[in-house]
Amino acid sequence: MPGTKLSIKKYVAVIAILLVLVMTVLDVTLVNVALPVMASSLGVSDSNVVWVVTIYQLVITMLLLPVSSYGDLHSYKRSFLVGVAIFIVASALCAAAGNFTMILVARAIQGVGAACVMGVNIALTRMIYPREILGRGLALNAMVIAVATASGPTLAGLILSAASWHWLFLINVPFGIMAFVIGYKLLPNNREKEHKERFDRRGAVENAITFGLIFYALGNFARKGDVATSVILLAVGLGTGYFYIRRQTRKTEPMFPVDLFRIKLYTLSICTSVCSFFAQNLAMISLPFLFLSGMGYSEITTGLLMTPWPLATMIVSPIAARFVEKHNPGKTAAAGMAFYGAGLILLLMLPHGAGEWDVAWRMVICGIGFGMFQTPNNIVMVGATPPHRTGGAGGMQGTARLTGQTLGATAVTLIFALIPSNVSAVHICLLTALAFAVLAGVFSLSRKVVPITK
């Protein structure tokens, strides 16, 4: 309904979700910038300090589905509050870390907290927003993520210019406390179920082993680690995954949502998500090499040239959310991928000696395309699932995003290892990204979706 609005209490409840979203996203972008400083301070190599980021993302990937399953069975609110509390404590531990081992342990704990809130974020958003304006809630989430991504490097630079890297983590504490208090008072509880399944502890362990070993092995390949070890870990991860998923097919509300994959619309949305984030990461990781090595821009200019993309996504996401309230979200998402593909083609056609403006407007087109795609795709995915399985749907969506991003990062590493010229390698990355953007568009177009208000 056009006039549908949220109550004041629900608006305030949304703030809790957005605060935690900002913290979890900033904790990646801030730390990325600070890695060289942390390596020097902690006395470790540049290759080892990357684990400060890797272990955080690895733990999130391992726990997203178990946390989502717990939320479906028991309480999204409880999972959220526990996650925020863990994140606050872990942030304080990160700020107090005096050696590399302590920061790694603290970051792993932080990953547990982040997984708890990320796994139920979409479910809580669905409970707060009426169906008619759910897209606006999902768009607001996407916009906040884009703002945090775009502002992270600048904010990190400001903090590091005035204080030590420890403050990058300490700033989480007051915002985390604020989110906890608001969430405790105002976030809604799940509807009571007549028959509750027991939480699948064995499934949680199998899920962690499956995703942990597969993603660790892929990362080890990318870092040019021991090939034999990587192959063994990958084989064990895939083998565990086979028995894990086979066992999940016998459950009413499985942790790995095989029941949801029987819904064609949901399955196509997940495939679309994996392909799109694969295409996104291929471009986002490789383009700085083109700007630095191929075009001779400085590090500062390169950072500025990467900013128009998330800014455009931030602006377009809420517009796309309102648009799909009356228009087909599947076709809108496909159009977004078409825009994104056009942006990649234009970047491939950059003339020699192109100026900053020539690059910036092409990055804007990529950002517009992703803004048109992301929220409509999430709307289709959430709308295709029953309300009591929103946690599992959201957890799988997060897992799909991380899967696409990890595979994209691995593909960039392999392409750069095979192609001696950085410029040529970037072009191969962009062409591959274009192919997967087209594939995502095809998946999106094949979905039979109607506008939310119909």
Helix content: over 70%
The assigned structural class equals mainly alpha
Global mean pLDDT: 84
Q: Quickly count the helices.
A: 18
How do the helices and strands follow one another from N- to C-terminus? HHHHHHHHHHHHHHHHHH
Unreliable stretches: none
Sketch the major β-sheet: none
Strand tally? 0
Oligomer classification: single chain
C-alpha-based Rg, rounded: 21 Å
Q: Rough shape?
A: globular
Strand content: under 5%
Ends apart, CA distance between termini: 10 Å
Could you explain the architecture of this structure?
By secondary structure, the chain is an all-alpha fold. Helix content is 79%, strand content 0%. The longest helix is centred in the N-terminal third of the chain and has 35 residues, at 8-42. It is globular, with a radius of gyration of 21 Å. It starts with 7 loop residues before the first helix and ends in a 9-residue tail after the last helix. The model has no long low-confidence stretch (mean pLDDT 84).
